[in-house]
Design brief:
Lysozyme-like_dom_sf; mainly alpha; 2 strands; single chain
Protein backbone atom coordinates (compact mmCIF):
# COMPACT_ATOMS: atom_id res chain seq x y z
CA UNK A 1 0.00 0.00 0.00
CA UNK A 2 2.83 2.34 0.90
CA UNK A 3 4.63 1.57 -2.42
CA UNK A 4 1.48 2.32 -4.44
CA UNK A 5 1.09 5.62 -2.63
CA UNK A 6 4.73 6.46 -3.31
CA UNK A 7 4.36 5.64 -7.03
CA UNK A 8 1.23 7.77 -7.24
CA UNK A 9 2.98 10.73 -5.63
CA UNK A 10 5.97 10.32 -7.94
CA UNK A 11 3.72 10.33 -11.00
CA UNK A 12 1.99 13.47 -9.78
CA UNK A 13 5.33 15.21 -9.20
CA UNK A 14 6.59 14.23 -12.68
CA UNK A 15 3.37 15.44 -14.32
CA UNK A 16 3.58 18.72 -12.40
CA UNK A 17 7.20 19.31 -13.50
CA UNK A 18 6.36 18.44 -17.13
CA UNK A 19 3.44 20.86 -17.10
CA UNK A 20 5.68 23.65 -15.78
CA UNK A 21 8.27 22.92 -18.47
CA UNK A 22 5.58 22.98 -21.13
CA UNK A 23 4.20 26.30 -19.90
CA UNK A 24 7.74 27.79 -19.76
CA UNK A 25 8.67 26.60 -23.25
CA UNK A 26 5.38 27.89 -24.67
CA UNK A 27 5.82 31.27 -23.02
CA UNK A 28 9.41 31.49 -24.23
CA UNK A 29 8.36 30.63 -27.78
CA UNK A 30 5.67 33.30 -27.76
CA UNK A 31 8.14 35.85 -26.40
CA UNK A 32 10.65 35.11 -29.15
CA UNK A 33 7.96 35.16 -31.83
CA UNK A 34 6.67 38.47 -30.51
CA UNK A 35 10.14 39.93 -30.78
CA UNK A 36 10.49 38.92 -34.43
CA UNK A 37 9.38 41.39 -37.13
CA UNK A 38 6.19 40.24 -38.83
CA UNK A 39 5.84 43.01 -41.38
CA UNK A 40 7.09 46.30 -42.70
CA UNK A 41 5.20 48.25 -40.04
CA UNK A 42 6.63 46.40 -37.04
CA UNK A 43 8.80 48.38 -34.65
CA UNK A 44 12.10 46.61 -34.08
CA UNK A 45 15.35 47.55 -32.43
CA UNK A 46 17.52 49.08 -35.12
CA UNK A 47 21.12 48.15 -35.70
CA UNK A 48 23.92 50.68 -35.52
CA UNK A 49 23.38 53.12 -38.36
CA UNK A 50 25.71 53.16 -41.32
CA UNK A 51 27.64 56.38 -40.86
CA UNK A 52 29.53 56.07 -44.15
CA UNK A 53 27.32 58.68 -45.81
CA UNK A 54 27.01 61.02 -42.83
CA UNK A 55 29.01 64.23 -42.66
CA UNK A 56 31.21 64.10 -39.59
CA UNK A 57 34.52 65.15 -38.16
CA UNK A 58 36.50 62.55 -36.19
CA UNK A 59 33.30 60.44 -36.06
CA UNK A 60 31.42 63.28 -34.39
CA UNK A 61 28.39 64.02 -36.61
CA UNK A 62 27.68 67.43 -38.06
CA UNK A 63 24.06 68.37 -37.14
CA UNK A 64 23.03 69.19 -40.70
CA UNK A 65 19.36 69.11 -39.64
CA UNK A 66 19.99 72.50 -38.03
CA UNK A 67 19.27 75.16 -40.71
CA UNK A 68 22.07 77.46 -39.51
CA UNK A 69 24.58 74.62 -39.59
CA UNK A 70 23.39 73.55 -43.04
CA UNK A 71 23.87 77.07 -44.45
CA UNK A 72 27.41 77.38 -43.06
CA UNK A 73 28.36 73.94 -44.31
CA UNK A 74 26.98 74.61 -47.77
CA UNK A 75 29.06 77.79 -47.93
CA UNK A 76 32.26 75.91 -46.98
CA UNK A 77 31.55 73.15 -49.50
CA UNK A 78 31.12 75.73 -52.27
CA UNK A 79 34.35 77.47 -51.24
CA UNK A 80 36.22 74.18 -51.68
CA UNK A 81 34.55 73.06 -54.89
CA UNK A 82 36.35 72.68 -58.21
CA UNK A 83 34.22 75.50 -59.61
CA UNK A 84 35.78 77.77 -57.01
CA UNK A 85 39.39 76.52 -56.91
CA UNK A 86 39.81 75.28 -60.49
CA UNK A 87 42.71 73.00 -59.55
CA UNK A 88 43.54 69.52 -58.23
CA UNK A 89 46.74 70.76 -56.61
CA UNK A 90 45.64 69.98 -53.06
CA UNK A 91 44.71 66.42 -54.01
CA UNK A 92 48.21 65.80 -55.39
CA UNK A 93 49.99 67.33 -52.39
CA UNK A 94 47.68 65.59 -49.90
CA UNK A 95 48.30 62.19 -51.51
CA UNK A 96 52.02 62.71 -50.92
CA UNK A 97 52.04 64.31 -47.48
CA UNK A 98 49.34 62.14 -45.90
CA UNK A 99 51.63 59.11 -46.21
CA UNK A 100 53.82 60.80 -43.61
CA UNK A 101 51.08 62.37 -41.46
CA UNK A 102 48.65 59.45 -41.14
CA UNK A 103 50.95 56.95 -39.35
CA UNK A 104 52.03 59.58 -36.85
CA UNK A 105 48.43 60.50 -36.02
CA UNK A 106 47.62 56.82 -35.55
CA UNK A 107 50.64 56.28 -33.30
CA UNK A 108 49.53 59.07 -30.98
CA UNK A 109 45.85 58.05 -31.00
CA UNK A 110 44.67 61.13 -32.87
CA UNK A 111 41.67 60.65 -35.22
CA UNK A 112 42.65 60.42 -38.87
CA UNK A 113 40.50 63.44 -39.79
CA UNK A 114 43.04 65.74 -38.13
CA UNK A 115 45.23 65.28 -41.20
CA UNK A 116 42.99 67.87 -42.86
CA UNK A 117 44.10 70.60 -40.44
CA UNK A 118 47.27 71.41 -42.45
CA UNK A 119 45.10 71.97 -45.54
CA UNK A 120 42.84 74.44 -43.74
CA UNK A 121 45.69 76.05 -41.82
CA UNK A 122 48.31 76.35 -44.55
CA UNK A 123 46.91 74.94 -47.81
CA UNK A 124 49.75 72.42 -47.43
CA UNK A 125 52.24 75.23 -48.02
CA UNK A 126 55.04 75.96 -45.54
CA UNK A 127 54.41 79.70 -45.50
CA UNK A 128 54.43 82.28 -42.72
CA UNK A 129 51.25 83.92 -41.45
CA UNK A 130 51.00 87.63 -40.53
CA UNK A 131 51.10 86.54 -36.86
CA UNK A 132 54.33 84.57 -37.33
CA UNK A 133 52.87 81.05 -37.56
CA UNK A 134 54.92 78.84 -39.83
CA UNK A 135 54.92 75.40 -41.43
CA UNK A 136 52.12 73.08 -42.50
CA UNK A 137 50.72 72.99 -38.95
CA UNK A 138 51.13 76.76 -38.56
CA UNK A 139 52.88 76.80 -35.20
CA UNK A 140 53.71 80.07 -33.52
CA UNK A 141 57.34 80.11 -32.26
CA UNK A 142 56.41 79.87 -28.57
CA UNK A 143 53.94 77.02 -29.07
CA UNK A 144 56.40 75.16 -31.27
CA UNK A 145 59.09 75.30 -28.59
CA UNK A 146 56.61 74.19 -25.92
CA UNK A 147 55.99 70.97 -27.82
CA UNK A 148 59.60 70.16 -28.58
CA UNK A 149 60.48 71.96 -31.79
CA UNK A 150 63.67 73.96 -32.23
CA UNK A 151 62.98 77.46 -33.50
CA UNK A 152 65.90 79.85 -33.81
CA UNK A 153 67.76 81.92 -36.40
CA UNK A 154 69.73 78.90 -37.54
CA UNK A 155 67.12 76.15 -37.52
CA UNK A 156 63.32 76.02 -37.65
CA UNK A 157 61.79 72.57 -37.12
CA UNK A 158 58.33 73.89 -37.89
CA UNK A 159 59.33 73.20 -41.49
CA UNK A 160 60.12 69.55 -40.73
CA UNK A 161 56.97 67.60 -41.58
CA UNK A 162 57.60 64.60 -39.32
CA UNK A 163 58.76 66.59 -36.28
CA UNK A 164 56.04 69.22 -36.61
CA UNK A 165 53.38 66.53 -36.94
CA UNK A 166 54.66 64.86 -33.75
CA UNK A 167 54.50 68.24 -32.00
CA UNK A 168 50.95 68.78 -33.29
CA UNK A 169 49.91 65.37 -31.96
CA UNK A 170 51.32 66.17 -28.52
CA UNK A 171 49.42 69.44 -28.52
CA UNK A 172 46.19 67.80 -29.71
CA UNK A 173 46.39 65.12 -27.02
CA UNK A 174 46.80 67.80 -24.39
CA UNK A 175 43.78 69.68 -25.75
CA UNK A 176 41.70 66.49 -25.68
CA UNK A 177 42.59 66.06 -22.03
CA UNK A 178 41.02 69.48 -21.45
CA UNK A 179 37.96 69.40 -23.72
CA UNK A 180 37.21 65.65 -24.11
CA UNK A 181 35.66 66.31 -27.50
CA UNK A 182 37.53 66.17 -30.81
CA UNK A 183 35.46 68.89 -32.49
CA UNK A 184 36.27 71.29 -29.64
CA UNK A 185 39.90 70.17 -29.80
CA UNK A 186 40.09 71.23 -33.44
CA UNK A 187 38.46 74.57 -32.61
CA UNK A 188 40.92 75.08 -29.74
CA UNK A 189 43.82 74.29 -32.07
CA UNK A 190 42.72 77.22 -34.20
CA UNK A 191 41.60 79.66 -31.52
CA UNK A 192 43.67 78.65 -28.50
CA UNK A 193 42.40 76.69 -25.52
CA UNK A 194 42.13 79.72 -23.19
CA UNK A 195 39.99 81.74 -25.59
CA UNK A 196 37.73 78.79 -26.42
CA UNK A 197 37.28 77.81 -22.77
CA UNK A 198 36.44 81.42 -21.92
CA UNK A 199 33.73 81.53 -24.59
CA UNK A 200 32.31 78.18 -23.49
CA UNK A 201 32.07 79.41 -19.90
CA UNK A 202 30.61 82.76 -20.93
CA UNK A 203 27.99 81.26 -23.23
CA UNK A 204 27.41 78.20 -21.02
CA UNK A 205 27.62 75.90 -24.00
CA UNK A 206 29.80 72.86 -24.64
CA UNK A 207 28.87 72.19 -28.26
CA UNK A 208 30.93 73.77 -31.03
CA UNK A 209 27.89 74.09 -33.28
CA UNK A 210 26.04 76.09 -30.62
CA UNK A 211 28.87 78.48 -29.79
CA UNK A 212 29.23 81.98 -31.22
CA UNK A 213 32.93 82.34 -32.07
CA UNK A 214 35.11 84.64 -34.14
CA UNK A 215 34.73 84.33 -37.91
CA UNK A 216 37.76 82.11 -38.52
CA UNK A 217 37.10 79.66 -35.67
CA UNK A 218 33.36 79.78 -36.29
CA UNK A 219 33.84 78.34 -39.77
CA UNK A 220 36.84 76.12 -38.91
CA UNK A 221 35.06 72.78 -38.47
CA UNK A 222 32.90 73.45 -41.53
CA UNK A 223 36.05 74.02 -43.57
CA UNK A 224 37.60 70.81 -42.22
CA UNK A 225 34.50 68.83 -43.19
CA UNK A 226 34.46 70.48 -46.62
CA UNK A 227 38.15 69.63 -47.16
CA UNK A 228 37.46 66.06 -46.08
CA UNK A 229 34.70 65.83 -48.70
CA UNK A 230 36.97 67.41 -51.30
CA UNK A 231 39.70 64.81 -50.71
CA UNK A 232 37.62 61.69 -50.07
CA UNK A 233 34.70 62.35 -52.45
CA UNK A 234 36.09 64.73 -55.06
CA UNK A 235 33.40 63.91 -57.60
CA UNK A 236 30.69 65.34 -55.35
CA UNK A 237 32.41 68.74 -55.46
CA UNK A 238 33.10 68.70 -59.19
CA UNK A 239 36.64 67.31 -59.18
CA UNK A 240 37.89 64.49 -61.31
CA UNK A 241 38.35 61.50 -59.00
CA UNK A 242 42.01 60.84 -58.26
CA UNK A 243 43.50 57.62 -56.97
CA UNK A 244 46.48 58.45 -54.68
CA UNK A 245 48.44 55.41 -55.91
CA UNK A 246 48.32 56.75 -59.45
CA UNK A 247 49.69 60.18 -58.55
CA UNK A 248 53.26 60.82 -59.68
CA UNK A 249 55.46 63.29 -57.81
CA UNK A 250 58.53 65.21 -58.92
Amino acid sequence: MYKKHLITCSVIVVLFVMSKLFIYSTTLKKTVEKAQPKGDNDVVVSEAPDASNELNFANEPVPVHDPKVAVKLEHSLKQHSFKRLQTNKLHYRAAKLFTVIEPILKHYGIPDDFKYIPIVESNLEAGVSPKGAKGLWQFLPGTARTYGLKVNSAHDERLNLKKSTVAACRYLRELYGEFHNWTLVAAAYNNGSIKLARQMKKQKKHNYFRLHLNHETGRYIYDLVAVKQMITRPGELGYQSIEPDSVAFN
